[in-house]
Amino acid sequence: MDIPQSTKSLGVTNEHDIELRLKENGLEIGGSYKPKYCRSRNKVAIVIPYRNRKVHLIIFLSYIHLFLQRQQLEYSIFVVEQTDGSPFNRGMLMNIGFEEAQLQSNFKCFIFHDIDMLPENDANLYGCPEDGKPRQMAFTIDIFEYKSTPDGYFGGVTAFSIKDFRKVNGFSNLFWGWGGEDDDLFQRLSFHNLTVTRPFDGLPNLTSFARYRTLYHTEEKPNPERWRLIQEGKWRFQTDGLISLQYRRLFIKFKPLYTHIYVDIKKY
Ligand code: NGS
Predict the structure, then answer these.
(1) Atom 2 in ligand 1: which residue has the minimum CA distance?
(2) Domain count of the fold of the chain
(3) Could you give the percent of the chain with pLDDT greater than 90?
């Protein structure tokens, strides 16, 4: 399937058209899917942090559902929306998605997914990683001219078993604004001796497989505190994260294409 850069190229103009199409494929309310003729090994929760990117949301959903269904995966999509006016807190929204998804079902693993990243290759499997082996899914990205991302890069799209994400205490909740929360997470993995794996590890020519296309957006405002937070991270790994997560869930809506969780995480 071609990767769309606009909803027009999909031949659809709104969410409703896509809903109808996907319903025919067997998509259930809340954006959940189970393959019809086989049983998936595990159930995967896809968590997407979100605010104010309606067009990206439509493009992402219309692409990713079919992608996941071609892989015969059992999955649900959770969109966690920050409704307050504080700077965007990607890490905290991921932590919230992790906790909220478990209130809905017994997911065995989690894929933390930016809304503007589209996997290009159907063979980049979104199934569960083994315990002890979190996976960096986005290995080469168009905006970096498909060069391999550096070893310490752990952003964009990452996969965890439930056990490993708990072990590292999730993301830090303290990164408000763009950048650094993924570097902090990478440090958490190293601290716990977890090995980062990548799709197609061991194969030659890795760069031609785990490719991602990004959807265009204007640059976000970087968080001026991020370098200091990263540097001091190791003192907080045990106390800042899932263990200290506090938020107000305003409401949850089970929409045809996804479960939409509205939260207030205001920076007090
Ligand atoms: C690093 C950021 C990461 C970010 C990566 C790629 O510099 O959070 O760039 O960003 N770290 C810091 O700023 C400390 S990207 O070009 O994909 O937007 O993930």
Answers:
(1) 179
(2) 1
(3) 74
